[in-house]
């Protein structure tokens, strides 16, 4: 997929810098990834109408292996590692990701230069019948998800239900649920992905944040580039939403503080208002048997410290609970 125009950056606006080359944007090849990339490309063309942009498809390890559970594959990063390698090698200039797919620590030399939008961060229940809620599912019903976080929160909300592995692109997972493949009674997906594909009618229920905290950055798009590419970073800054970027940065700070490379289920969602931030978090043990929920309210200027303090306290409490036999 390639979008073209005249080379240059006329019309980019003051402070956007000068990008006088064809920009190569890397993305996965799924329908959702392409739609997300289309949105970013459209925003860039709005900022710089004469910009030339080529879209290059990159296959990631998570795309190749669609059977192995994500936690076994390595969790976060399985949909980004190959794209980031292409960035570092100079094969592409920028990459579009779902922010939740990025590891807590980016590879040296790369930065998140823009987070242009965030759709509904909540998880959504999808089911063969419209209007079905989580409470409507019968005991023992199988609910599909590829996320250990969602599986743990499902267990906390309905211990009588059975979480089963559900891999594939959004359309594949939705089809499997609708066809009741493997005895599925329902599935849990990100509401944002369904909305971006125009499949809001597939949502049977939006799951409440009180019991289903999203992954850090869920619903947000992240545009990554090389740290030393100053002209491109200036252009990408023109499509960044500062409020969304700040909230996602706080969520990622919590992820980093708890050890984002681990396999523990992690949820975080930050709300910013009037110079203050409310950070809500969920942390589970690696076995997926125990979940802690906590929140912290504080000054926005001290948000990273707040995230670090909350992470340390939750890690301490989780260790005590596991040591005590839960």
Q: How would you characterize this protein structure?
A:
Strand 13 (276-284) and strand 14 (291-299) form a beta hairpin. Helix 9 runs parallel beside helix 10. This protein has 326 residues and is of the alpha/beta class. The protein has helices at residues 31-47, 61-64, 70-73, 81-88, 148-157, 170-178, 191-196, 230-237, 242-257, 303-323, and strands at 2-3, 23-27, 53-57, 94-98, 110-114, 123-126, 142-145, 162-165, 184-190, 203-206, 221-226, 266-273, 276-284, 291-299. It is globular. The strands form three sheets. The protein has a six-stranded mixed sheet, sandwiched between helices. Strands 8-7-9-6-10 form a five-stranded mixed sheet, with helices on both faces. A three-stranded antiparallel sheet has the order 12-13-14. It contains ten helices and 14 strands. Mean pLDDT is 90; it is low at 1-15. Helix content is 32%, strand content 24%.
Task: Please describe the topology of this protein.
Blueprint: E1 2-3, E2 23-27, H1 31-47, E3 53-57, H2 61-64, H3 70-73, H4 81-88, E4 94-98, E5 110-114, E6 123-126, E7 142-145, H5 148-157, E8 162-165, H6 170-178, E9 184-190, H7 191-196, E10 203-206, E11 221-226, H8 230-237, H9 242-257, E12 266-273, E13 276-284, E14 291-299, H10 303-323
Parallel strand pairs: 2-3, 2-4, 7-8, 7-9
Antiparallel strand pairs: 1-3, 4-11, 5-11, 6-9, 6-10, 12-13, 13-14
In summary, what is this structure?
The protein is of the alpha/beta class and 326 residues long. The chain is built from ten helices and 14 strands.
């Amino acid at each position: 997929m390639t979008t073209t125009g005249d080379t240059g950056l006329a019309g980019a606006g003051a402070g956007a810098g000068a990008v006088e080359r064809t920009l190569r944007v890397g993305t996965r090849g799924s329908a959702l990834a392409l739609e997300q990339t289309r949105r970013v490309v459209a925003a860039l063309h709005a900022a710089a109408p004469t910009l030339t942009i080529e879209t290059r498809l990159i296959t990631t390890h998570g795309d190749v292996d669609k059977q192995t559970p994500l936690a076994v594959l390595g969790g976060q990063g399985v949909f980004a590692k190959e794209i980031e390698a292409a960035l570092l090698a100079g094969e592409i200039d920028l990459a579009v990701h779902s922010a939740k797919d990025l590891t807590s620590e980016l590879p040296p030399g790369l930065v998140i230069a823009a987070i242009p939008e965030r759709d509904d961060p909540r998880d959504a229940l999808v089911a063969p019948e419209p209007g079905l809620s989580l409470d409507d599912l019968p005991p023992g019903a199988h609910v599909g998800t590829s996320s250990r976080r969602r599986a743990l929160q499902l267990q906390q909300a309905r211990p009588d239900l059975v979480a089963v592995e559900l891999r594939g692109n959004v359309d594949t997972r939705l089809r499997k649920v609708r066809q009741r493949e493997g005895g599925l009674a329902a599935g849990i997906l990100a509401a944002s992905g369904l909305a971006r594909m125009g499949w809001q009618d597939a949502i049977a229920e939006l799951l409440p944040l009180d019991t289903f905290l999203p992954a850090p950055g869920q619903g947000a798009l992240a545009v990554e580039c090389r740290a030393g590419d100053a002209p491109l970073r200036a252009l990408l800054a023109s499509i960044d939403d500062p409020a969304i970027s700040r909230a996602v940065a706080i969520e990622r700070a919590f992820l980093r503080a708890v050890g984002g490379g681990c396999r523990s289920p992690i949820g975080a969602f930050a709300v910013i208002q009037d110079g203050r931030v409310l950070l809500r978090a969920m942390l589970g043990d690696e076995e997926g048997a125990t979940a802690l929920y906590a929140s912290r309210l504080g000054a926005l200027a001290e948000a990273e410290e707040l995230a670090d303090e909350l992470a340390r306290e939750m890690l301490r409490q989780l260790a005590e609970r596991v040591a005590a036999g839960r």
